[in-house]
Amino acid sequence: MDDVVYDRAGRGEPLVLIHGIGHRRQAWAPVFPLLTPHRDVIAVDLPGFGESPEPSGGYGIEPALVMFKELFTDLGLGRPHVAGNSLGGLLSLALGQAGLVRSVTALSPAGLWTRRQKLYAIATLKAHRSLAQRTPPHVVRRIAATAAGRKALVGMIVGRPELLTPDVVVEDARALATAPGFEPSAAQSRGDFRFTGPVTGVPVTVAWAERDRILARPRLAELRKVAPDGSFRLLPGCGHVPMNDDPELVAKVLLDGSR
Hints:
Blueprint: E1 6-10, E2 13-18, H1 32-35, E3 39-44, H2 61-74, E4 81-85, H3 87-97, E5 103-107, H4 115-134, H5 137-144, H6 147-154, H7 166-178, H8 182-187, E6 204-209, H9 220-226, E7 231-235, H10 247-257
Parallel strand pairs: 2-3, 2-4, 4-5, 5-6, 6-7
Antiparallel strand pairs: 1-3
């Protein structure tokens, strides 16, 4: 198995957390301590992101399913609960469809889009990556020192950028700028790719951020096609990456979804 980097702590049933494209396992840091009294929590860096090396088997849903199946076995997790945001939400749904997990919680998952929505989302994220690559870290830090600066840098990504610390903004920008997995992961969405499910046989929760400016929330009828027996929730005041916007709410959604 590829040398996947992860943080693990807590007690109870296992819950694996999967971040989005261009992000890192520390995206879950605001909710991590709220989960560990109740779950054995494993936050992973996807291959090609954060500190995990690029995958030997390539990028895409199928290689990711193989990787996670091996990771679950190596860590003795059996069929864990899984939760993911954006790309991580898409992978969580795919893991549920494959029968590899005991529950799925997807926060603003990728893949449930129209072609136009997909093109907009990928273009927006690529623009953020280009900006991160062209802006020196000391300039990012200077801008991130003020609430207005943090809003300018990440206001498209999170709903409450003023809650982020300058250090988190700087490190997230570095992770986005340097992730070798960004382009090949984005390339997987070419053509008419769309995740249609259905995900059945396991509990599924899809929670969409109210202030998501990256991915438009599908209609309820479309969500029911993906998860016919799923639960669907709105995350008030939250942006596309909701964990820092309202950690208590997100933690509750994850705990409820992994009962």
